[in-house]
């Protein structure tokens, strides 16, 4: 595997991660996960735009422009002959002796490498179980920061309960998943939490909202409660690696009739068609 490390492509064993990289001590950095279909980085520009926004939000100056990053990531994909998978990219504030305040002089450290990913076909066809977990994260969930401890704990709780995903809630309000956004269908309306400081504005979330509009499905970005979710006709989560996955049960309660519903399936078909079209367009 070749790794992109500060502009260079190196074999994994030659990447010298420093003990005092601030990503280790403080989780002081930001990241992205970008899906690759047919050797193409899917929705690359929105991902890079979000990386820039995340970096700015933590006052980290990126020394690379989005177009430089795009070129480097395309080289990474080509060098690894990656066809179907994903790319993980992180930027830390850099290497410096451990102290909380920003170091006077440090250079950001960028690492990017391929991750395996494939369409979760079975989960998409059958739907999955989810479980409610209290959202204990900080109040800047809009930043895609390396600090994922609360997300890790929530996902682990879900796994221990035999569920695929944790649905996070602050009080009664559902925010998002541990690594995904959550949607419900109420009648003919698709609803998801607004993109504010309480959730990550998922690239897939935005893509699905656009797809829904094109398919003539009404959408509303408004908070909803746990009860709304349990009483919804349909529910699903979205993420770069999972695309759209129907939620058919939450903590033992069936959602709708307990199988993936018609609007979710329509969106899944539209999503797959859009992926196909994008790949063909870009080639
Ligand atoms: N997770 N919300 C959270 C907390 C996430 O971590 C993610 C993505 C999403 C969905 O965002 P997007 O559609 O841009 O992937 C929402 C990535 C995939 C991860 O950490 O692996």
Describe the structure.
The chain has 283 residues and is of the alpha+beta class. The chain has two domains: 2-115, Aminotransferase class 4, branched-chain amino acid transferase, N-terminal domain (D-amino Acid Aminotransferase, Chain A, domain 1); 121-279, D-amino Acid Aminotransferase, Chain A, domain 2, CATH 3.20.10.10. It is built from eight helices and 16 strands. The strands form two sheets. Strands 7, 8, 9, 10, 11, 12, 13, 14, 15 and 16 form a ten-stranded mixed β-sheet that branches. Strands 2-1-6-5-3-4 form a six-stranded antiparallel β-sheet, sandwiched between helices. β8 and β9 (173-177) form a beta hairpin. The radius of gyration is 19 Å and the shape is globular. The two termini are 24 Å apart.
What is this structure, in a nutshell?
The chain has 283 residues and is an alpha+beta fold. Helices cover 31% and strands 30% of the residues.
CATH class of the largest domain: Alpha Beta
| Large-scale geometry | globular
Give the overall pLDDT as a whole number: 97
Strand content: 25-35%
Bound molecules: N-(5'-phosphopyridoxyl)-D-alanine
What CATH architecture label of the largest domain applies? Alpha-Beta Barrel
CATH homologous superfamily (4th level) name of the largest domain? D-amino Acid Aminotransferase, subunit A, domain 2
How many angstroms separate the termini?
24 Å
Share of helical residues: 25-40%
